[in-house]
Write a structure and sequence with these properties.
elongated, 2 domains, Uridine Diphospho-n-acetylenolpyruvylglucosamine Reductase, domain 3, alpha/beta, Rossmann fold, 12 helices, four-stranded antiparallel sheet
Length: about 325
């Protein structure tokens, strides 16, 4: 067995150790090296685990000829041994969060729907250690908090990322060993995208200055910050419930440290249907001023047509229609 494929199989086996024999999995297939290598490893592991490994190719229809690329990816997945490989075309609707974020939202919705239709227990994504390091650097550049710097989790709901512990070079090696020709997305050469500049310019410069292991160091930083963020988010969830609804008791909020209070406000805003990709730290700072620096100021405009205002010692999130928005899920 090729050593590179064996390494990927080991990562897949570790991440899916809790998946019972005979269960259905979905591999999100783009035709790129990462997803093709992941598909090969998952299929190879399925012979011992008796999983039914299926594939879904999401065609965003954002580039000319995207349907050809999607069909080719599906054919490669089938040749690797994926069963029931489907191409799903989506409409990417602008939502104010930017084209990349809107495409990601459409893609995840399509993958979730496909998984539900097949009774799948997990959707496997091909993100690697390099993707994680790039995500951390992008968060640093934006001045983001721990939530963004924590990068991508190995698991979130149905979605799993078995390859977060391996470098991108390994997936390319697997493809070479198997005689696969991955699709190269031309967007990955477009320096107008921040992630491309990080990949092509920022990370190589850091590696030249600090050594090749800087990618692993960035990923470890993400792991530590994710642990901290999980604990603070749990604290914030308890505070949000204690603050009550409709409207949040500003005295309850004011007692909390700023790190927790901002997480409470973020959770409340998301619960009021403010788009996550459009909610910035500046929105939270302005909203927090209604709690900690109240001097009768007017309401705060948030993305998605939601406004924050303070009345009678309570903070309300209200849609433009005047309806008081939910701030958390009722039990």
């Amino acid at each position: 067995m090729d050593d590179a494929l064996w390494q990927l199989r080991r990562e897949v086996r570790r991440e899916l150790a809790d998946v019972e024999a005979g269960r259905v999995l979905v591999v999100a297939l783009s035709g790129g090296a990462d997803s093709l290598a992941l598909a090969a490893a998952a299929v190879a592991e399925s012979s011992a685990s008796a999983w039914r490994v299926t594939g879904v190719v999401v065609d965003h229809a954002l580039q000319a000829g995207s349907e050809v690329v999607a069909k080719r990816a599906a054919a490669q997945g089938s040749a690797l041994g994926l069963v029931d490989v489907a191409v799903v075309r989506v409409d990417v609707e602008p939502d104010g969060s930017g084209p990349e974020a809107a495409a990601r939202t459409a893609r995840y919705e399509a993958l979730s729907a496909a998984a539900a239709g097949r009774g799948a227990v997990a959707v496997l994504l091909g993100h690697t250690l390099d993707d994680q390091a790039e995500t951390v650097l992008l968060g640093l550049a934006r001045g983001s908090g721990a939530r963004s710097l924590a990068g991508m989790p190995a698991r979130r709901g149905l979605f799993r990322r078995p390859l977060l512990g391996v470098r991108r070079a390994l997936t390319r090696e697997v493809c070479r060993d198997l005689g696969l020709t991955p699709w190269h997305d031309p967007h990955n050469d477009d320096l107008s995208f921040a992630r491309v500049r990080v990949r092509a310019q920022a990370l190589p410069s850091l590696q030249a200055a600090l050594g090749e292991r800087v990618v692993e160091s960035l990923a470890r930083t993400a792991d530590r910050l994710r642990e901290d963020d999980d604990a603070l988010t749990q604290w914030a969830s308890s505070t949000l419930a204690a603050a009550g609804a409709p409207g949040l008791d500003v005295e309850v909020l004011a007692r909390e440290p700023v790190a927790v209070r901002h997480r409470v406000l973020r959770l409340a805003a998301l619960g009021a249907d403010v788009p996550a990709g459009s909610l910035s730290s500046s929105h939270l700072v302005t909203l927090d001023a209604l709690v900690t620096d109240w001097h009768g100021q007017g309401s705060v405009a948030l993305p998605g047509g939601v406004r924050g205002s303070r009345r009678c010692g309570r903070l309300y999130l209200t849609r433009e229609s005047g309806e008081v928005a939910k701030t958390h899920e009722e039990p």
